[in-house]
Write a structure and sequence with these properties.
alpha/beta; five-stranded parallel β-sheet; about 260 residues
Length: about 260
């Protein structure tokens, strides 16, 4: 029997205490569904989808504020294409644009520099949404209000302590992309505080199955394991971390730029 066969057999026949594993990465969720992983698991192993992508968890008030700014003719709001479709309490940015709001889609934050140089009397507002993985592409231009995964996971763990015993999450699949940039050091404190296992997982079906197997085996332990060593280290990408903590040094044009 190969190691993969052994993992599949263990996960299919597991008959221990109920296990509830939360993945906090939208790409993990998509791959789990695409690969049919739930059908390979014992009825006692439950997968729960967490925060997902940062665009999906953008709060309504943030979109409403962007729409209000874009409706002001002295402003232009820039965003990536996926954010344009997220609705606020009344409109998405795309819908606001059809009503006359000044909204532009860009493929990179630096794209707004050429627009800003040509229109120095306009406020150019970039709607920066993301987790740690997107901070490096923003920071040379403008550092804005972004989300950090450890903060969100800590909140989830606190809420988890209030849940009924048959609803509690018992382990987490840590996000591979975020950990590639940020490392997994911050999760060690969370794991110890809440006595929950975290396993950093890659994105293929086999890597996810191995991580789920690891979480089942580590139930009840406040520990972090890295099952994605080909991309992730404990301290992450040092160049990215330096950008998070240092001032931006991008090419500022003679225009008014701000972040929201």
């Amino acid at each position: 029997m190969t190691r993969r066969d052994g993992i599949l057999n263990f996960l299919k026949t597991y008959d221990g205490p109920e296990v509830r594993i939360m993945e906090v990465c939208g790409t993990h969720t998509a791959q789990i569904v695409k690969s049919g992983i739930p059908s390979l698991l014992s009825p006692k192993i439950h997968l729960i989808s967490g925060p997902g992508c940062p665009v999906c968890v953008t709060v309504t008030d943030y979109i409403d504020r962007l729409v209000a700014l874009a409706m002001d003719p002295s402003n232009t709001v820039y965003a990536f294409g996926d954010l344009l479709r997220v609705r606020g309490s009344r409109y998405s940015l795309s819908e606001a644009k059809s009503l006359g709001a000044r909204v532009r889609m860009v493929y990179a934050p630096s794209d707004i520099l050429s627009f800003a140089e040509k229109n120095p009397d306009t406020f150019h507002i970039f709607a920066a949404v993301g987790f740690e993985t997107t901070v490096p592409v923003y920071v040379d231009l403008v550092l804005t209000s972004l989300k950090t995964m450890p903060g969100i996971v800590t909140w989830l763990c606190r809420e988890n302590e209030k849940a009924a015993s048959d609803k509690k999450v018992t382990g987490f699949l840590a996000p591979g992309h975020v950990c590639a940039a940020a490392g997994y050091r911050d999760y060690e404190k969370i794991a110890e505080q809440f006595q929950l296992p975290f396993i950093v997982a890659g994105f293929s079906a086999d890597l996810l199955l191995a991580a789920i197997y690891g979480l089942v085996r580590e139930q009840g332990r406040g520990i972090v394991r890295n099952f994605y060593p080909q991309a992730v280290t404990r301290d992450g990408n040092p160049a990215a971390r330096r950008l998070w903590h240092g001032p931006g040094n991008g090419p500022w044009p003679s225009a008014r730029l701000c972040g929201l």
